[in-house]
Design a protein that fits this description.
Elements: E1 2-10, H1 15-30, H2 37-54, E2 59-66, E3 69-76, H3 101-109, E4 112-117, E5 122-129, E6 159-164, E7 169-172, H4 174-180, H5 184-187, E8 196-197, H6 208-211, E9 216-224, E10 230-241, E11 247-255, H7 284-289, H8 297-311, E12 316-322, E13 328-335, H9 339-342, E14 346-348, E15 363-365, E16 385-393, E17 396-405, H10 413-457, H11 462-473, E18 480-485, E19 494-500, H12 506-514, E20 528-529, H13 532-548, H14 567-572, E21 577-584, E22 587-595, H15 604-626, H16 629-639, E23 653-659, E24 670-678, E25 681-689, H17 693-711, H18 717-729, E26 738-747, E27 753-760, E28 766-768, E29 774-776, E30 795-799, E31 804-808, H19 810-813, E32 816-817, E33 820-821, H20 823-832, H21 839-853, E34 862-868
Length: 875
């Protein structure tokens, strides 16, 4: 028997899907059928999408209420018989196919469903039965044996603590006194942070002070008792305001093992989605994403935002991924938003204007108009309410997932918990796919850079180098590019080359850029946004369009009337434009400008690759001006001998400063290295090869790579150097003797660091203690490459917190000014002034002292390696 009906029609536009979801949700909630709302919304969303998007017709939606359930019918005007008869053994195809997913979902979720045809319409219907439960029950659990019930004390105490807007305790009830041992007068007026033992993750910047600012929060932390012990508690925070508008936070706390008193139960479903049809446990990831899951990152992210939107009945959803340093979030997928404009846009995570609010914790914003800029991605989209949750892997922020709606107040803490549960299920899969994509990109980037380096090193012609730079970036990295060159420090940047993937647009872009001031030649590495081309092109194109319509006025600008860029030019340069400095030998010799068309952004990985390319291109451009082909090839070989980026060592600060002597030299006979050997152990080396040229470079490469290979075989320091000595002697006439300081570093649990060093003919390392005393940390032993039979030994040095170990090459100690030489004693005197400095500050002070010791440019290579054990932080 039909007891109520509701009907609506929807136009064949994308927004109709969200409207249909809202119509079904409002209708069923009005009928009191909240238990089946989620399933009904998901099925309706798929069926209406098939009608208005894939079939391209309007959709007629009919909801019928019966005594035992709800029947929903979706009719369209595309009556093709593509659907198999219900009960047929014919496969419906892949769930990832554009069509057919709605019927698969009907088969999985609905109690009954079917398809009906007329000459003008096709109707798909499904029926959802109501679960049997007592009237008025919101959530209930089964009867359990006593031994399975949550454990609690004889009397459960719920501490009620109220915190004002500054984080100060204003109310403390009797149960709080009993639980934590403080009287109300002892804690009133004190910050809650003085009592809370918050599970802080280093580097996240998230603590209880931030949690108290959220509208709702639920989770675990600890409270320090009056006797100094920490009581683990489970807390539920609610942000409220009084009649005067003053905000405060009400905190309910129970002992952690009694969390069932406060903990919000997970929202149940009418079916057990954690089990597959054959009764086996299903993967929660596959339950949310669907099986099979997309095998590419973009497909996985797009499926994720679509499912998240449908799950919470939102108008839009988005997913951002964190950069490796977790300082920015990059838009990677969205639905219901202008994705072309937003894709790859970046926003900061922590402080600063336009920050992404509460990215590391779940957050619910009831009305974005009250907190403008809290979610920069949604600015200007018409969205009013939003719920965002973090994606975390092993405590590290990897992304953020959000669902938004056009109406305010759509989401509560319950929706945040549901979305967080889904985010936790997919976070690892998303991170795994991201790392896989990143690895593929890096491999491709490596091949790209190798090919680019080969091409740039193969010519010394300036114009050909400029053309190669542009052709390598377009279209691989950008849609268009421009290269500015700077002849000398007194010259202005000159527009030397312009390229666009569409050759017909090159002249228009060149005309535009030639009439506006070039970007400032800032030597700071990395890409910086340059908005001038897009703004000027837009203004000029608008003025041109208005003149063509016989109108006057328009936006004022200072562009020369002769520019006359077309609308196509404005479209070409209307997206994100970035500038990368071309820095060679500590001088800005030009700038590489990359651009995207309207509403497009650069990926962070592309910018990093462009930065690598700009460094190589700058050197090639400078080589074409300064050196012969033999010199250019030699320099490229020498640069390849430098070690990769130094690793970060927990508990030890490390800084390296390297200076090669001679104009244009990037690498000399001195070398250094720092690399991991095994868990908790690192090898370090600093050395000096006798002579210059290819033979010296060969010994440098042999020494650095042999050290890594031998050290990772588990050999001791003396054994490593003895085998390296044999390898150098095996070079025969090409061999060179080598001074080398080699050691192994192991940070200790007590905060110190243990070093085992061997000093083979090299200037002795110096140890700076906290009291300012300086002493050699090793004894001299024979150098390498001279004697066949060496008997070397290693010495153990312990660096206490605050101690510094300084290692240098002889270019530092033999720095001369006339008859004066800095020497070992002069270096020790400078080091005594470095007490309390960081490793970077120590290395910088030593280098400044060496450079100021003489007025002439250094005639020898110099390398400085400083290692310091930091002092523990004082509470």
């Amino acid at each position: 028997m039909i007891t109520a009906r509701a009907a609506a029609s929807f136009e064949p536009v994308g927004r109709s899907v969200a409207s249909a979801r809202s119509f079904v949700r409002d209708t069923l909630q009005g009928w009191g059928f909240s238990d089946i709302v989620d399933d009904a919304v998901v099925l309706t969303s798929e069926l209406v999408t098939n009608a208005v998007v894939h079939a391209g017709t309007s959709a007629d939606l009919l909801c019928l209420r019966g005594e035992d359930g709800v029947r929903i019918e979706v009719a369209d005007r595309y009556p093709e018989r593509e659907i198999p008869v219900q009960g047929s053994a014919v496969s419906m195809g892949s769930p990832d196919r554009e069509g057919g997913r709605g019927l698969q979902l009907c088969a999985a979720l609905a109690g009954r469903w079917g398809v009906e045809y007329t000459p003008t319409h096709k109707t798909v219907w499904f029926q959802l039965d109501l679960p049997e439960r007592p009237v008025g029950t919101r959530a209930a659990g089964p009867s359990l044996p006593a031994d399975l019930l949550p454990l609690a004390d004889g009397r459960i105490r719920v501490a009620v603590v109220q915190i004002d807007r500054t984080g100060t305790i204003t109310s403390w009830n009797e149960d709080a006194e009993e639980l934590f041992g403080y009287k109300a007068e002892q804690v009133t007026g004190k910050p809650l942070t003085d009592l809370a033992a918050w599970p802080h993750t280093p580097g996240t910047g998230t603590g209880i002070a931030e949690a108290l600012q959220l509208s709702r929060w639920e989770g675990s932390y600890g409270i320090r008792n009056a006797d100094g012990r920490v009581t683990p508690v489970y807390a539920s925070h609610l942000r409220v305001r009084d009649t005067a508008g003053e905000p405060s936070t009400v905190c309910l706390l129970v002992r952690d093992h009694e969390r069932a008193v406060l903990q919000t139960p997970l929202r149940g479903t009418t079916t057990d989605t954690s089990r597959s049809s054959d009764g086996q446990n299903a993967d929660p990831f596959e339950v949310f994403i669907g099986s099979p899951a997309p095998d590419d990152l973009d497909g996985l992210l797009q499926r994720t935002v679509e499912r998240a939107r449908d799950m919470l009945d939102g108008d839009a959803a988005f997913l951002l991924l964190a950069t490796d340093d977790e300082t920015e979030l990059e838009v990677r997928a969205s639905t219901g938003l202008p994705s072309a404009r937003q894709r790859f846009a970046r926003v900061p995570v922590e402080a600063g204007p336009g920050r992404y609010g509460s990215a590391r914790m779940p957050a619910v914003h009831d009305d974005l108009t009250a907190v403008p800029g809290a979610v920069p991605l949604l600015n200007g989209t018409g969205m009013r309410s939003v719920v965002t949750v973090p994606l975390k892997v092993e405590g590290r922020l990897t992304g953020s997932l959000g669902v938004a709606a056009e109406a305010p107040g759509r989401y509560s803490n319950e929706e945040a918990l549901r979305l967080q549960f889904a985010a936790d299920r997919i976070a690892l899969a998303v991170e795994s796919a991201r790392l896989g994509e990143l690895e593929r990109l890096r491999r491709g980037s490596l091949s790209f850079l190798v090919e680019a380096s080969d091409l740039l090193a193969g010519t010394l012609d300036r114009d050909q180098t400029l053309a190669l730079m542009a052709q390598m970036t377009v279209p691989t990295l950008a849609t268009w590019c421009a290269v500015y060159t700077i002849a000398d420090q007194a010259s202005e940047p000159y527009l030397s080359y312009v390229l666009h993937e569409d050759e017909e647009l090159i002249d228009g872009i060149k005309s535009l850029l030639s009439k506006i001031p070039p970007p400032d030649p800032v030597p700071t590495p990395g890409a910086r946004v340059w908005s001038a081309p897009g703004e000027v092109a837009h203004q000029a194109a608008l003025r041109t369009s208005m003149r063509s319509l016989g109108l006057s006025g328009g936006p004022s600008n200072h562009v020369t009337p002769g520019i006359g860029p077309t609308l196509a030019t404005a479209q070409a340069v209307g997206g994100e434009t970035v500038v990368l400095p071309l820095v060679a030998r500590n001088r800005v010799i030009g700038m590489l400008t990359l651009g995207k068309p309207t509403d497009e952004h650069f990926r962070q990985e592309i910018l990093e690759l462009a930065e690598d390319l700009s460094r190589r291109a700058a050197l090639a451009l400078d080589n074409a001006r300064l050196y012969s082909e033999r010199t250019a090839i030699s320099q490229s070989l020498q640069r390849s001998l430098l070690p990769p980026e130094l690793p970060q060592i927990d508990g030890v600060e490390v800084e390296v400063i390297y200076r090669a002597a001679g104009e244009g030299n990037e690498v000399g006979g001195d070398f250094y290295d720092l690399f991991p050997i095994s868990d908790g152990a690192y090898g370090f080396a600093i050395g000096d090869v006798c002579g210059t040229g290819p033979n010296a470079a060969a010994v440098t490469g042999l020494a650095r790579h042999a050290l890594r290979l031998l050290a990772r075989e588990g050999l001791s320091g003396p054994a490593v150097l003895e085998r390296l000595n044999s390898a150098i002697l095996d070079e025969g006439a090409r061999s060179r003797f080598l001074t080398l300081l080699y050691g192994e570093l192991r940070p200790q649990e007590d905060g110190s660091a243990e070093l085992k060093v061997v000093c083979a003919g090299h200037p002795l390392p110096l140890r700076l203690r906290q009291d300012g005393t300086v002493e050699p940390a090793a004894e001299p032993q024979p150098l390498l490459g001279v004697l066949e039979d060496l008997e070397l030994y290693e010495e153990t040095v312990t660096l206490d917190p605050g101690d510094v170990l300084l290692c240098v090459t002889d270019g530092v100690t033999e720095r001369r000014e006339g008859n004066r030489m800095l020497g070992d004693d002069g270096l020790a005197d400078v080091l005594t002034t470095c007490t309390g400095l960081t490793a970077g500050a120590v290395a910088a002070r030593i280098m400044r002292a060496v450079e100021r010791f003489a007025s002439d440019a250094p005639s020898d290579d110099m390398a400085i390696l400083a290692m310091r054990v930091p002092e523990p932080h004082q509470d």
